[in-house]
Design goal:
alpha/beta; Rossmann fold; 2 domains; seven-stranded parallel beta sheet; six-stranded parallel beta sheet
Amino acid sequence: MSIERVVISGGGTGGHVFPAIAIADAIKAKYPDCDILFVGANGKMEMEKVPEAGYKIKGLNIAGLQRSLSLKNLSFPFKLLGSLIKAKKIVKEFKPQFAVGVGGYASGPTLMACSRMGIPTFLQEQNSFPGITNKLLAKKAKRIFVAYKGMERFFAQEKVVLSGNPIRGQIENMKVDLEKAYEYFELDPNKKTILVIGGSLGARTINESVSAAHKAWLNEGYQLIWQTGKSYVESISEELKNTKGLCVKPFIKRMDFAYSLANVVISRAGAISVSELCVVGKPTIFVPSPNVSEDHQTKNAMALVKEDASICVKDSEARESLESVLLDLMSDESKQKKLEVNIKNLAKFKAAEFIVNQIESVI
């Protein structure tokens, strides 16, 4: 059979958006005429990143429940009801053969609407601890594609398929002209490069730690590519406007360029960041975010530390220790090489293509 019409829903962060785009790309590679419609949450990054990737998207006025007591929670039932009605209308008009949910607020109403209309639904869970939305949608899903072993703790065993995380083709199939990459970031080809990525939305601790440490790193002759996140870029750019050897960006569109130049990476330990760093095989210092459910970023990072495939610095200790940990690693080439080999051994390739093949076998 041919795949002709598909809905993909979810988002909120790069950890949800980029796997969704990778799955869409894998469908398009096999079925070039397939009509793919994304459904996201208005005001979230998918509304920008999905059109940039060449796909259509419709937005729902949906937001999550606040974990703490908040007046914002009073509007939640109304937003949910409005989103359910709109999602039903979108699905009814588009008539997809199946829907894929990748986590995030918008996937809830969209996949609920599909299930009620008898349209097969599939989930992709990036983390070792699933989000609320995927937990709620799991009962009706045909298959749940996961990146970590042991997810039967949360989902029905017969539905769970270990696929790995889909990552961007730009990263998985990296073929980079290094001269162009250095020009893109306006950096020196003769200097070693540190890459700092605090996730798609930025990370306060990492940004503050790098602000405190960057002079020592530059004094050692290193240079820096720094993804700050939108919220932080203005203040950081102002602080560092006359500093040479630095490229500061709110978001790095050419991550293939950035990864290719990096000698060492400093990163949060979100599931997609971990998966990408395994594939590109870069020595990495993880600074896991403590502000996630079940502290799953620390679990992600420690899974690599156990294999001697990365270094982990606690968020609470980063401001004091990140400067010296980075300098120690940059000066130890044998340690870099060991981390590079070991992290690459943990990579899972072609996850998006595997997921598409599995969905085909079900429908």
